[in-house]
Amino acid sequence: MRPLLAAVAAPLLALAATFAAAPTAFAASDVSTVADALEKSPVYVDPAVSTELTSADVDALERKIKNADKPVMVAVLPADFPKKDLFSDLRTKTGVVGVYGVRLGDAFEARADHQAMSNSAVQNLTTSVRGEPLSEQLDDFVSTAVRTARGSAPSSWGGAGGTSDGVSAGPLIGVGAVVVVGGAGIYALARRNRRRKEAERREALDRLRVVVDEDITAFGEELDRLDFHPAEAGADDTMRADYERALDAYEKAKQFMAAAQRPEEVRGVTQALEDGRFSLALLAARREGRPLPERRAPCFFDPRHGPSVEDAEWTPPGGSPREVPVCAADATRLRDGAEPMIRTVDAGAGERRPYYDAGPMYGPWAGGYFGGGMLPGLLVGTMLGSMMSGPAYAADYGSGYGDFGGGDFTGGDYSGADFDASDFGDFGGGGDFGGGGDFGGGGGDFGGGNF
Q1: What span, in angstroms and rounded, lies between the C-alpha atoms of 68 and 134?
Q2: Tens digits of per-residue pLDDT, 303-338?
Q3: pLDDT per residue over 84-94, tens digit each?
Q4: Which residue in 140, 143, 121, 119 sits closest to 131, CA to CA?
Q5: Which phi and psi (to 5°) does residue 29 adopt?
Q6: Distance from C-alpha of 74 to C-alpha of 449, rounded to nearest angstrom
Q7: How far is it, in rounded angstroms, from Cα 359 to Cα 376?
Q8: Residues β-bridged to residue 107
Q9: Has residue 209 got a pLDDT over 50?
């Protein structure tokens, strides 16, 4: 039987080798080809450049990533591969939360979900390997990335490897039984933790709903008091446009809040309200013949006060002085040595406290009003500021200051198209590849501060 099997196997192996070699004549047609490959294995080399890396090099990279159990992916593509939206399209099609390194011709860049690696880490890592020969570059990138990346490799990669010939089945069965029992325990623990987090999110959303409903009601009352009619004498198209934007913002805020299922989704509600209030400020200036106001953040002490008119120094109890945007009334109070009118919210157990000292669930609410860039300076030294700077906050309520999207996925999870698009820009940031330490300008906010 052995000679017969050998006779049959030989031509089959030759045929398989022929098919395996055939793709080298063709380049990958699109991002989908690369994404499909990365869903199955952490390293993809386009057939058009397959001669630039040996199979041993590829195997070594794959083995290093799988042994480290980290969500790190590498693609080697030809120079003429389309750069437009390469990273974001690749991330959408793979659906895997992780770190993506791409060698395109002689150029190299990387992007990452903020849950898997911080902005500064991605920038530093990319800069450190830029300009190296291909094999050395990818090895250095992977070696550092697997030490830095957070999360685990996706299950679709199948682990670090199989068993060798001659291994007894008995010990493997025993180990398998232990793994099954251990896996059941881990699954039960993960399920219990997920339920606990879900209960915490529901409680946070319930508290946020009260605060946001107050904001929506207050804005609706402003619209009622406005006494503006689009057909009134003196009204022009710009006034009518301001009014329409304010009405649209009011309706959008109500719709967003009604549809909200998670705390981080509240950010869209307060963003809409902030837009609406600015539209009302523009309309008021046009009707009164005043210069149009500049776009400023809402009053820090209570966004219901409307857009701020100046920055004023304020020191929270036990904190350090900082400049905060304030409305005219609060600016006057501060100059007179009086306390500003600070928004208080439910902090639990029937206690009301200023929103910045009432717990992490109010981060999305504040982020919609003030955006990502302002919050670190405004909230430093407060309870909310301290909580938002930690990784636990990022996992449970959002991904950083003012950035509350992306769910609660971690590195290696399959999130599909649910990811923060600002993490993934064009390859080279729109043609500025290799622009010094600026990372091409396309990386966006990778969640710096969580690292």
Answers
A1: 21
A2: 999 999 999 999 888 788 889 999 999 999 999 999
A3: 889 988 998 88
A4: 140
A5: -75, -35
A6: 25
A7: 16
A8: 104
A9: yes
3-state secondary structure of 103: strand
Angle between helices 86-94 and 31-40 (to 10 degrees): 50
Q: How far apart are CA 324 and CA 334, in angstroms?
A: 11
Judged by DSSP in three states, 255 sits in: helix
Residues 217-267: tens digit of each pLDDT: 999 999 999 888 898 888 999 999 999 999 999 999 999 999 988 888 888
Please give the single-letter amino acid code of residue 342.
Answer: I
Helical residues (DSSP H) of 343-434, grouped into ranges: 363-379, 383-388, 391-397, 428-431
CA distance 174 to 189: 23
**C-alpha angle 148-153-159 in degrees, rounded to nearest 5:** 130
How many Å apart are CA 147 and CA 133, to the nearest integer? Answer: 21
Sign of torsion over alpha carbons 289, 293, 299, 303? positive
Indicate if the alpha-carbon torsion angle 432, 433, 436, 438 is positive or negative: positive
Dihedrals phi, psi of 312, to nearest 5 degrees: -135, 150
Write out the two tokens for 67.
């042994």
The dihedrals phi and psi of 300, each to the nearest 5 degrees, come to -60, -35
Q: If DSSP codes are grouped into helix, strand and coil, which group holds residue 77? A: strand
Handedness of CA 354, 359, 361, 367 (dihedral sign): positive
- In 3D space, the residue among 53, 72, 76, 50 whose CA is nearest the CA of residue 63 turns out to be 72
Confidence of residue 449 (pLDDT cuts 50, 70, 90): very low
